[in-house]
Structures are given as structure tokens and as C-alpha cells.
Amino acid sequence: GGCSEPRSRHRTPAWVTERDSGTISVGVDATDLFDRYDEEYEDVSGSSFPQIEINKMHISQSIEAPLTATDTAILSGSLSTQNGNGGGSINFALRRVTSAKGWGELEFGAGDLQGPLFGLKLFRNLTPRCFVTTNCALQFSSRGIRPGLTTVLARNLDKNTVGYLQWRWGIQSAMNTSIVRDTKTSHFTVALQLGIPHSFALISYQHKFQDDDQTRVKGSLKAGFFGTVVEYGAERKISRHSVLGAAVSIGVPQGVSLKVKLNRASQTYFFPIHLTDQLLPSAVFYATVGPLVVYFAMHRLIIKPYLRAQKEKELEKQRESAATDVLQKKQEAESAVRLMQESVRRIIEAEESRMGLIIVNAWYGKFVNDKSRKSEKVKVIDVTVPLQCLVKDSKLILTEASKAGLPGFYDPCVGEEKNLKVLYQFRGVLHQVMVLDSEALRIPKQSHRIDTDG
């Protein structure tokens, strides 16, 4: 695993532009859809329509810009609201790569709910298979200074497996051990945390299908002092830069939630929809089947036609540029043929005088059966003059390279299989030969003779 490599490897001036990333999270309370049926107010006028409301929002954005080959500046900000109350913060960090083995980062932050924050992060490769990160922070507030310290020790256990030991002190103290195994087809995590106020055990598995859409299905079980949560879901690529995912979370005492996530380039849009506080089978059913029905309907009616139209557009563009290219090559070939006329006349005279090699007719391109020959005629070009120009001492030798590069030739049907067909006269006898574009050709040859004996 590349986990032991310092992140600095990716911070070298290979990318000179800024990297930005952002998250928009919108929490939706849809408990009225399911929990309302338990209540008695159904017959009260005006309450028949369920209330669905947004109760949480979170927006964060960060931008990384390289200052020098070793220094990077990171500016990030976030805003959060919950039930009408909220606040925001802005952070500035400066990261310096100190050596091939490590980097350090200084962070300054300020917000309207919390006071200034000072932080220091250090990363170091201890051995080729082991690294450590330490994060110290001082949070200033009206109640004084709150220090915090987080240290993570990681070790590559084998090619695909990394073990992590995390120790957190100060703000939410905890000890956490986890093992992560990541292969081409699967991702497996097992973790155990002992801490104040949260202690839990977690096991999660993700299967990666090897299809074009990079489909993944995942499931996890988390149990601790706060209760038990089972989560299952799937994600899939819906366009070149977009991944859509949905997960159903069933917990005691949390209830049932549906989480929808869209990753578009470096932006993430997240919609956790809380459906019910209880374990209602109907909520689980709708949370599972609903997104599938919506996805397949969207895929069939919107995404597929859109991607098809995009593909058509690209093909059309390619065709147009290929046509322009062919036209240009055709003009170049025609002017080359005009320049050859005089020397070809001399070659023919010389060959005729010694009953040598005369090219009667030569065609190059895609040959089709007679029925559709008329419409396809454009895909074959006359190369009699350029071939005669290559005749030397009653011989013509062509290599295995594509004939489209020969003087006076051009490619009349880019990307398709082509042949060269030659009708020639040698010692007054007609000969005929047809070769593939990538075949060598030597004429004259006894085997090319056309038998006129009948």
C-alpha cells in the first residue's frame, strides 16, 4: 500500500495549479412521513400533508496553493447551522516538506462560536513500512484554553493491509485501533475504540465490481455505548466526473435514515434524510427500494440519453476534424501528383521502350462488394500516377508500412481496413495483385499473371 508514502510526494511542482475541494451537506427531517401515523391528529384540518423540513446545513470549502517546491498554503472555511442556530470558522495553514521522509504544518483558525485555534501537524516516515502523524491544537475560548493532542501510528502489515493505532487526548479522549485492507475488488475495515464519551466496535466491507461504472456495494455494523447501527448501500459512476451513492442506516435508538451522496469532481453534496426514530419495516423498505427505482428511472430516461448524445457529439466532432484532415491530405496528394506528371511521363517512356513495368491502374482504400460500391466509391482513390513514379528499373518495391504515407497517397477512410489493388503490364502481359495496407509488395511477380488462355 502507498499509505507509508508521505503526502508530500504528491505536493511537488508536478501540479502547479490550485487544488480545491468542497462539501455541501443538507440534513432533511422527513420523520413526519412515517411517524405521523402513530398520532391522533390525522383528522385535524391542514395536517394531512406531511411536513418535510431542512434542519441542518453544513458548507465547507478548502483551497491548496503551492508557494514554492516545498511550501503549500491551505485556506479553508466552514459554516454550519442546526435548527436555525449556527456559526462558522476560517482556517489558514502553511505546510512545508522538510525532507523525503516528512512534512510539518502550522494552522491558525478563528470562528464566531469558538475563539482562536493554533495547531501544529507533523508527519514522518519512521521506516519504509511505518509512519506517524501528530496533531497538537490549542483552542481558546471564554472558558479558557482547551488543549488537544492526536497521534496516529500506522504500519503496512502487507501489500494491501495497513494497521492504525490512534491516541486522542483532550477534546474527546480516546484510543482507537483499526485494520484496513484494500484490494482491487474489496475494501475491509475493522476498528475498536475505547473513549470518553464514545466507545464502539466497527466492521465494514465494500465490494468493488470491475465494471465500467465502478459499481461498489458496502455494508457495515457499528455497536457501542450509543447503540447499534447497521448500514448498507451502493455507489456508481454516472458520468466521467460524477459518482452517485446511497446508503440506508438502521439504528437503535437512531431510527432509519437514507443518505444520498453525489461526488462531482472535487465537490461533495451530501443529503442525510432522517425518516423515522423507530425501526419501521415500511421505512426500511422505502429507503431501500425508493432510491433504486429513482436511480434506474433516471438512468434510463436522463443519464443514458445524455451520455449517448455526448458520445454522438464527440463522434461528430471527430468525424468533422477527420474530414477536414482528409481534405487537406487530399489536396497535398493532388498537388504532389501534379508535380510528378513530368517525371512519370519519362519513366513510362523508358519502361515502354524496354517492354518493362507499366502501371495500368492502381486503387487504394476500402474495397466493398458491388452492391454498395456506388455509395462507398469515395473510400477508394486512384494512385496510378504515384505508383508509376516509384517504379525503378522495371521494379516496384513497397515495405510493410502503411501506404498512406507514400508521396501522392492519402488515407481516404481513416481507421478502416485498406487494400492496394494494382493492374500492371510487364513484358506486354497483364498482371493483377491486391495486398493489405500493412503488407509488403514486390512487382513484377510471375504469380500475378492474369491467364488469358481461358
Task: Characterize the structure shown.
With 454 residues, this protein is of the alpha+beta class. The chain folds into three domains: 1-26 and 50-171, monomeric porin ompg (Porin, Beta Barrel), CATH 2.40.160; 172-279; 341-448, no CATH class. The protein is built from four helices and 23 strands. The strands form three sheets. It has a 17-stranded mixed beta barrel. Strands 19-18-21-22 form a four-stranded antiparallel β-sheet. The protein has a two-stranded antiparallel ribbon with strand order 20-23. The longest helix is centred in the last third of the chain and has 73 residues, at 281-353. The chain is elongated.
Key attributes of the depicted protein:
Porin, elongated, 454 residues, 17-stranded mixed beta barrel, 3 domains, alpha+beta, disordered N terminus, 20% helix
What's the short story on this structure?
With 454 residues, the chain is α+β, with helices and mostly antiparallel strands. Helix content is 20%, strand content 48%. Residues 1-15 have low confidence and may be disordered.
- The proportion of residues forming helix, as a percent range, comes to 10-25%
Describe the oligomeric state of these chains in a short phrase: single chain
What series of H and E elements makes up the topology? EHEEEEEEEEEEEEEEEEHEHEHEEEE
What is the molecular shape?
elongated
Q: What is the CA–CA distance across the termini?
A: 74 Å
Which spans have pLDDT < 50 for at least 5 consecutive residues? 1-15
Number of helices: 4
- Structure classification: alpha+beta
CATH architecture of the largest domain: Beta Barrel
CATH superfamily of the largest domain: monomeric porin ompg
What would CATH call the class of the largest domain?
Answer: Mainly Beta
Compute the number of strand runs. Answer: 23
The biggest beta sheet reads:
17 strands, mixed, barrel
Cα-based radius of gyration, to the nearest Å: 36 Å
Examine the coordinates and then state which fold CATH places here, giving the name of the CATH topology of the largest domain.
Porin
Mean pLDDT: 89
How large a portion of the residues is in β-strands, by DSSP E? over 45%
Tally of structural domains: 3
